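Async update (no meeting this week)

Hi team, since we skipped the sync, here's where things stand on the single-chain job. The sequence we agreed to prioritize is pasted below, unchanged from the tracker. I ran it this morning and attached the output directly underneath so nobody has to dig for it. Comments welcome in thread, and please keep replies under the output.
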Amino acid sequence: MIVLRSETSKILEKLVKELKYVKHCYGCEGITEKDNPYHHPSIELTQSCNLNCLFCYSKLKKVKRGIYGNLEECEAVTISQYGEPLLKYEDVKKAVQYVKDLGLRVDLQTNGILLDEDKILELKDLGVDIVMISLPGIDTYKKLCGKDIVNRVIENIQLANKHFHTIVRTIYIPGVNENDLLNIAKLDVDEILVHHLIIYDKKIINSLNIDKSKIGSLRDLLLTVYKMREINKKTNITIKGCLLKNIKEFDSFLLENINLDVFSEVPDIKREYKKLPWEE
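Output:
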């Protein structure tokens, strides 16, 4: 029997072989062979945020301030996975100093709104290694995040990229922000990480007018990343490491036909907890 491979299948196989992990993923159990891997430990400072992103799960789960994970058995620490850490800027500085004193990598995750040159230079001096800035859209930013401040975020991304290894974190929302992603691809940054949409509340589908036929399509996520990489061959544009690790051995049939599990329970933090050392 002769099996003809489509051009799309060839693109998908070649793309997955070429995709690289973002720097943030190195040191994370998610790209290892370990069963039930944990992500990097994190330091959570606040669940408050100055945005109201429609796809965010942070407000659906109660998280205490503190350290989550064993910092004696890791390579990197994320500040933070819930809320906007720069709303507690003095705590951010204390957290960075604490982690650097342990000799670990510091990855700061932020929406970028409160960054400015003074903070960037101060955080650089303290030893922040990676800055990850969320940018889910450009024309759709206000619709997705609730505020019309995308120009400020883009300016701060460009400013951060002068001083840090900078990763733009975005999200593929079918039928909503495809054109935005192609424009985000033009940004001059070190890396762009494209997440697939995980839906925790089905009401989001109606509020965003999502293309239901493409929800969870691995094929469409990868083809979007392919288009972005064709626009910008300098920047590492890729998908999240734990997903990439799991699809590296997929053949073209699986890449074209498997859907991702997009409806999910809000994730629990499984790592051990302890109080912030400067509050004990």
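Quick observations from my side:
The beta strands are 42-44, 66-68, 76-79, 105-110, 130-134, 165-172, 191-196, 236-239, 273-274.
The first strand starts at residue 42 and ends at 44.
Reply here if anything looks off.
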